[in-house]
């Protein structure tokens, strides 16, 4: 047995013991401690945001300015009231965990959380949700962020020592099969990652276990003809540029492309305005370190676009002298790979029907769509987006700021982690 697997099994034993003590306390008291934690983390420029902004660049490559803005925007409404609102919506009240209602609800003896990526908000939320149900958390850190989970645990220990004992943070290599098997012995497993990694992890699941996976998602923006009127276009572009710049376009809520409904000239105007906005965003929130492979991918996609232009296609490339930002106005709406790191394609579509036809092949991955410029047609467009599989619709500028109680991937947050017991 590997050292990591031994550490995981020992941590699981400690969590089960702490969980028994936690379940002796009123659920409302535990909820108050978790709400206090969110109040502390949501303070703009508060101590936990400051420490994360100062230390996270060393692990993730994001610049401190980008992290500060991302935390300030993303955590602004992640407070204690938002947590209470979530509990009321999905459970009715925290007291349901104490009462013999119908159905009775409870959490699992403990929950294993396999973290991924380098954006702090998903880590914070993933760690707190099982604790609402009085299920202690065994968390495996992401290889790109080993800091956030530890800061969350430290801050919780300051607020409520028992709740602090109910989080154990472990590190292990994905190549350590014994450690993975030990981690996946948990009665409830929450995993984040690529579709392939989730499929591999789910093979370990047994019939008595709960498995909740959050895989690859894709977010987009769509703009209508009314955006071309007056100063609205420039203001919209600055909002979407911030959505793109935050976390260097690396998260599932970052816009990967823009669809412009109207003429080819309209799409070109959108691309030009976005280029100016991304240049301004770069000055305000500089992009972080760029690995060689990602720099090569950006150069390759730029070269491919230039070659298509030279061959007569109506493709335009607007880009910084370096790799800091790129906008490619495409000739038609067929999806093309996007290297991200502040690289946007603008796809022209003649009308709403053409837009939804282009969206259809992407439906299984759709997450957030920013919609602007449709005026009286906004509500019908929103309904059509929901029918197409989109799980969150916002105006540009709000893509990176989901509510704490948002329906992640279109599903509730607490009930997938809850055990229900019917009494007949």
Looking at this protein, list some descriptive labels.
single chain, 424 residues, alpha/beta, Aldehyde Dehydrogenase, Chain A, domain 1, Aldehyde Dehydrogenase, Chain A, domain 2, 2 domains, 7-stranded mixed β-sheet, 5-stranded parallel β-sheet, 15 helices, 14 strands, 45% helix, 16% strand
CATH top level of the largest domain? Alpha Beta
How many separate structural domains? 2
Number of helices: 15
Q: What are the low-pLDDT stretches, counting only 5+ consecutive residues below 50?
A: none
CATH architecture of the largest domain: 3-Layer(aba) Sandwich
Residue fraction in strands: 15-25%
Total strands: the figure is: 14
Enumerate the strands of the largest sheet in spatial order, edge to edge or round the barrel: 9-10-11-8-7-12-13
Describe this structure in words.
- It is a single chain.
- With 424 residues, this protein is an alpha/beta fold.
- Helices cover 45% and strands 16% of the residues.
- The strands form 3 sheets. Strands 9-10-11-8-7-12-13 form a 7-stranded mixed sheet, sandwiched between helices.
- Helix 2 packs across helix 5 (80-91) and helix 2 (27-41) packs across helix 7 (148-159).
Explain the layout of strands and helices.
Layout: H1 3-22, H2 27-41, H3 47-60, H4 64-74, H5 80-91, E1 104-106, E2 111-114, H6 120-132, E3 137-140, H7 148-159, H8 161-165, E4 167-170, H9 177-183, E5 188-192, H10 195-202, E6 210-214, E7 218-223, H11 232-245, E8 255-261, H12 264-284, H13 292-310, E9 316-319, E10 326-329, E11 343-349, H14 352-359, E12 366-372, H15 378-387, E13 392-394, E14 419-421
Parallel strand pairs: 2-3, 2-5, 3-4, 5-6, 7-8, 7-12, 8-11, 10-11, 12-13
Antiparallel strand pairs: 1-14, 9-10
Helix pairs in contact: 1-9, 2-5, 2-7, 3-4, 11-12
């Amino acid at each position: 047995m590997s050292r990591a697997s031994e550490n995981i099994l020992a941590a699981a034993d400690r969590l089960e013991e702490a969980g028994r003590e936690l379940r002796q306390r009123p659920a409302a008291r535990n909820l108050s401690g978790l709400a206090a934690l969110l109040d502390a983390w949501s303070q703009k420029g508060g101590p936990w945001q400051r420490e994360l902004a100062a230390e996270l660049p060393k692990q993730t490559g994001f610049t401190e300015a980008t992290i500060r803005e991302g935390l300030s925007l993303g955590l602004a409404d992640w407070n204690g009231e938002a947590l209470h609102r979530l509990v009321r919506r999905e459970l009715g009240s925290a007291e349901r965990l104490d009462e013999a209602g119908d159905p009775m609800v409870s959490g699992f003896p403990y929950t294993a959380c396999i973290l991924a990526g380098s954006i702090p908000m998903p880590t914070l939320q993933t760690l707190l949700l099982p604790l609402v149900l009085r299920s202690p958390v065994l968390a495996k850190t992401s290889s790109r962020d080993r800091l956030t989970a530890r800061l969350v645990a430290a801050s919780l220990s300051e607020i409520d020592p028992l709740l602090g004992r109910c989080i154990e943070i472990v590190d292990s290599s994905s190549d350590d099969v014994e450690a993975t098997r030990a981690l996946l012995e948990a009665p409830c497993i929450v995993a984040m990652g690529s579709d392939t990694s989730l499929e591999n992890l789910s093979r370990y699941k047994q019939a008595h276990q709960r498995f909740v996976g959050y895989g690859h998602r894709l977010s987009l923006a769509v703009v209508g003809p009314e955006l071309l009127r007056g100063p609205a276009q420039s203001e919209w572009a600055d909002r979407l540029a911030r959505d793109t710049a935050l976390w260097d376009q690396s998260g599932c809520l970052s816009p990967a492309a823009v669809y412009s409904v109207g003429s080819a000239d309209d799409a070109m105007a959108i691309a030009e305005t976005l280029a100016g906005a991304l240049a301004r965003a770069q000055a305000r929130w500089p992009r972080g370190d760029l690995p060689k492979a990602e720099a090569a991918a950006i150069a390759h996609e730029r070269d491919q676009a230039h070659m298509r232009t030279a061959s007569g296609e109506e493709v335009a490339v607007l880009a910084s002298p370096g790799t800091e930002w790129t906008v490619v106005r495409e000739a038609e709406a067929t999806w093309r790979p996007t290297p991200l790191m502040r690289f946007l394609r603008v796809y022209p579509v003649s009308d709403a029907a053409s837009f939804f036809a282009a969206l259809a092949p992407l439906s299984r991955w759709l997450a957030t769509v920013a919609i602007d410029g449709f005026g009286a047609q906004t509500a019908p467009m929103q309904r059509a987006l929901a029918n197409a599989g989109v799980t969150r619709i916002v105006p540009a500028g709000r893509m990176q700021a989901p509510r704490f109680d948002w329906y992640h991937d279109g599903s509730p947050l607490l009930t997938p982690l809850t055990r229900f017991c019917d009494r007949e």
